[in-house]
Amino acid sequence: MDPAVTQLQQWIDNHQDEMVKALQDQLRIPSKEADPAPGAPFGPECRRALDHALSLAEKAGFRTKNLDGYAGHAEFGEGPEMVMALCHLDVVPEGDGWKYDPYGATIDDGYIYARGAGDDKGPSFAAYFAACALKETGVPIKRRVRIVFGCNEESGFRCVKHYFEHEEAPTYGFAPDAGFPLIYAEKGIANLTLTMKQPIAEGLKLVSGEAGSRPNIVPQYASATLTGADKDLDKAMEVLGECWDKNITYSRAGDQITIKAQGKPAHGAAPFCGDSAVNRLFRVLTDLPLAGGSDWIDPIYATGDTGGVGLGIHGRDEVAGELTSNWGLLSIHDGVIEALYNIRYPVEWTGDMLLEKNAKMREKHGWELKEFSDSKPLFVPLDREPVKTILSVCKDEGIEKLEPGTMGGGTYARAVPNTVAIGAGFPGDGPGHEANERIAIASYIRLSKIYAHILYRLASL
After folding, report:
1. Predicted TM-score of the model (pTM)
2. Is residue 94 among the annotated active site residues?
3. Which band of pLDDT confidence, cut at 50, 70 and 90, is reported for residue 381?
4. Is 17 annotated in the active site?
5. Which of 27, 90, 216, 306 could form a disulfide with 105 if both were Cys (CB 3.0 to 4.6 A apart)?
6. Catalytic residue among 33, 45, 90, 94, which?
């Protein structure tokens, strides 16, 4: 091992208590996106998380900058070129099912439990303290080192868009927000919002309904309220009484029936790892005597297929594999069904290709396109920097899995040139976007050592 790397990692070992306290303080800030406030475009708690990180860095002697509450950075060193770690401090909603306070940063059996522990506050602070090690030990490097803290990664990337409208791109960079050793391809990410009017016919009608908290989370809860003639309500109650699904509950009050479904949340990039409450809800609705019959409700239920078959968009490529689709949000009001699908599509596709495939389904079943947003895929050849250096470091650090990977999740890497996403977790850590998210203190320290090694090598090329 290079003596400089040994020196860096020894500094990290000597500052473990400080590192744990700083991370716990950050994890206790519930930095979910909220309504904007002055100087806080993503809400006061996201701003508080950013202020906390920049305050630590300023006290440690870094040059810091806050870009209007969207993002900020901590930097040291000199020279025209710069290496960067792109981190984020915002988190998804906590959801239910926690055994500890999701913002308590409780330590149990060597793990810190909190929303954001693994995605991405733990890795972000590991990168920050890696930079601290470089700065404090004074090992020789050729480039400036900058740690960027964003506040809107989970819901739109507006933070990095604003940041790079005002700041330079790195010579080389990494986002500590993926798997080891690195991710060289990220699927395209699209949010597809469709609407449909309920048919004008006799029978039960959907009065209202809702599901989901974010597009990129598998819905944990879903509900719908129906109304109709007594004979239709009686028939519906009879059908519901025979429902085998224990995650479905229902009740009748006057001329309305309310149905509720419960599922299990998961990251929208892997919807097959969750249990969609909206899919459970619509499976039940297909059995009821709804106005218009099965010709319109069955195709709606089919759109919940995680492979995109019901949307007419299923497919794959040889780089990143199968397309996935998460029916993330549902709203029913004034006779209109609105559905948002969070889609991760192959790296060899484009957003226009996706829309073209979906157009046939919309025309056939009466859907209207309300909104479409698209984040293009990332694909970095394996023979380019910074990939070669990161792979070399991971081998030196004994990372067990040495094959570069692909993923459906999206990181800041897709928004910045010469940047890839790298490892941020070890067995036992996680699961991101789910209850009881956690990171082992040992993992946190090991991550910081690996990031210090990577920053040192990239800054020395």
Report:
1. 0.78
2. no
3. confident
4. no
5. 27
6. 90
